[in-house]
Amino acid sequence: MIKMKNLVKILVFIIIITIILGFIFITINKKDNKKDNVLVIGLDDSFPPMGFRNDNNEIVGFDIDLAKKIGNEIGMEVRFQPISWAEKEQELDSGKIDCIWNGFAYTDERAEKMTLSDVYVKGEMYFILKNGSTAKSQNDLKGMKIGVQNGSVQQADLEKSEFGKEVEIIGYGDFLTAFIDLDSGGIDAVFCSNITGNYLIKSLKKDYTTILSDGISTASGSVIAFKKGNIELKNKIQNAFNKLLAEGELDYISSEWFGTDMFYRGGDE
After folding, report:
1. What is the CATH number of domain 37-122+222-258?
2. Residue 6, pLDDT score
3. Over the stretch 70-87, which tens digit does the pLDDT of each residue have?
C-alpha cells in the first residue's frame, strides 16, 4: 500500500504538473490569438514611394500608409517584414509573411501562382535616361545597357520580350542603386514603372528624360498578393479597401504621396 505521506506527495506533484500544463496551454493560446490578429506584410524596403526607409530608418511610403489604414479598419496589427524581392514567392508560400504589399504588379503568370487582390493603382512602364542621351525612342536603345530591379515584373517582361534580346539587361537589388549607376554611366537607361520613376526623379532632383515602352509590359497595375487559396484574408482586405475608397477615406494618402488621385476604380481608363 502507498503510505499516506507518499500519496500526498503524488497528489501535490499532479496538481503542480496540472497547473504548469494549464499555464503553458494558456500562454500558447494567447500567442496564437495574437498571431491571428497580426498581418505580416512582406516588402522591399528600398522601393520608393511604395515602401522605403526614411532618414530615421523608419519604413514609410504610400503602401505603408494604405496598409496601416486598412489594418486599423479590419482590427489587425500590421507588421512590415523586409524580404528579398527575388525570393518573395518563397516567403509567401512558407507562411513567413501573410501577403506581399509593395507596388506588386499584376501579371497572368502571378495570378496562377498566387491569390491576388483587384488592381488598386495603375501605372505605365517607361525607360529613364540622363538628359542629353542620344536615344530618343525605344528603338534607339537597342544595343545599350538597361537597368532593372532583380525579381521585378520589369525584369521578367524585358527578358521575355523581343526587344530584350537586343539590349544588355543589368539587374540590381533595388531601383535606387540602378539610378546611381545610371548617373555614373554604368548603364544607359532604367526600365521601371512611372509610379516609382516619377517619385525618384522628383526626389533625386536630377535632369532625366523618359521614353514610354512599347510592346514589352504585361503588367496592368499594382495588386496585393496572398498565398494561393487564401481567399478569406484576400476578401477581408479587399472589402475594407473598397469601403474606405468609396467613403473617400483613402484620398489623403494618394494626395500626400503623388499629389493626385492614383487609385484605380473598376472601369477607369
Report:
1. 3.40.190.10
2. 59
3. 999 999 999 999 998 889
